[in-house]
Amino acid sequence: MQHSGDGQHLLVVDDEPGITELLSTTLDLAGYHVSAVSSGQAALAAVEAERPDMVILDVMLPDMDGFTVCRKLAERGHAPPVLFLTARGSVEDTVTGLRIGGDDYVTKPFHVLELLARVHALLRRSGRAPDEQVLRSADLVLDEAKFQAVRSGDALDLTPTEYKLLRYLMVNAGQVMTKEQILQHVWQHDFGEGVVEKLVSRLRHKVDAGRRPLIHTVRGFGYRIAES
């Protein structure tokens, strides 16, 4: 599947010229507007001046690490989505990147098509790419214009938070969403993973009760909803 942009502005932050050139060329051909810097201070200045729709951020930078850059962006408020792209692929680094405000974490070496898919999905779920008016998963339909979910012709009585969670899962249908990702994108506050479990349980009861299950638990990882 090809994933193309709609002119969104992406800021690449990496001090490896080869990686910067590869990313700039690939993303430009995919329809994005790309700018690039090679240090943390330059990244902070570029975000302030250019207001990019997304930041693709390396962790190992010459002046400050990418985690520090991400923290500083989060402290400013209204930060663009951040996708970490780095050779530091330990579980500890991944968890750190996501906990401090990163929206996705990809390790080098990476596959270009996977990166494009992740960029597209992140822009879409952050509201910086055109949304589909109708999302579908099997016989479940979510009409974004009406803020309504219907399964097998029956309207589902969802609270605003349940609707937001369902939309988040459907936008990312087929992908496993971690509890941390759900906390960040549904609440944008750290209320604890128990809150996520309770919300998913309520949503599952409304969506799946008496029907073929669409919302699945992937033990140790998170939740996903079936694709169409």
TrEMBL record:
<dbReference type="InterPro" id="IPR011006">
    <property type="entry name" value="CheY-like_superfamily"/>
</dbReference>
<feature type="DNA-binding region" description="OmpR/PhoB-type">
    <location>
        <begin position="132"/>
        <end position="227"/>
    </location>
</feature>
<dbReference type="GO" id="GO:0000976">
    <property type="term" value="F:transcription cis-regulatory region binding"/>
</dbReference>
<dbReference type="InterPro" id="IPR039420">
    <property type="entry name" value="WalR-like"/>
</dbReference>
<feature type="domain" description="Response regulatory">
    <location>
        <begin position="9"/>
        <end position="123"/>
    </location>
</feature>
<dbReference type="Pfam" id="PF00486">
    <property type="entry name" value="Trans_reg_C"/>
</dbReference>
<dbReference type="GO" id="GO:0032993">
    <property type="term" value="C:protein-DNA complex"/>
</dbReference>
<keyword id="KW-0902">Two-component regulatory system</keyword>
<protein>
    <recommendedName>
        <fullName>Transcriptional regulator</fullName>
    </recommendedName>
</protein>
<dbReference type="InterPro" id="IPR016032">
    <property type="entry name" value="Sig_transdc_resp-reg_C-effctor"/>
</dbReference>
<dbReference type="GO" id="GO:0006355">
    <property type="term" value="P:regulation of DNA-templated transcription"/>
</dbReference>
<dbReference type="Pfam" id="PF00072">
    <property type="entry name" value="Response_reg"/>
</dbReference>
<feature type="modified residue" description="4-aspartylphosphate">
    <location>
        <position position="58"/>
    </location>
</feature>
<keyword id="KW-0804">Transcription</keyword>
<dbReference type="GO" id="GO:0000156">
    <property type="term" value="F:phosphorelay response regulator activity"/>
</dbReference>
<dbReference type="InterPro" id="IPR001867">
    <property type="entry name" value="OmpR/PhoB-type_DNA-bd"/>
</dbReference>
<dbReference type="InterPro" id="IPR001789">
    <property type="entry name" value="Sig_transdc_resp-reg_receiver"/>
</dbReference>
<dbReference type="InterPro" id="IPR036388">
    <property type="entry name" value="WH-like_DNA-bd_sf"/>
</dbReference>
<keyword id="KW-0238">DNA-binding</keyword>
<feature type="domain" description="OmpR/PhoB-type">
    <location>
        <begin position="132"/>
        <end position="227"/>
    </location>
</feature>
<dbReference type="GO" id="GO:0005829">
    <property type="term" value="C:cytosol"/>
</dbReference>
<keyword id="KW-0805">Transcription regulation</keyword>
<keyword id="KW-0597">Phosphoprotein</keyword>
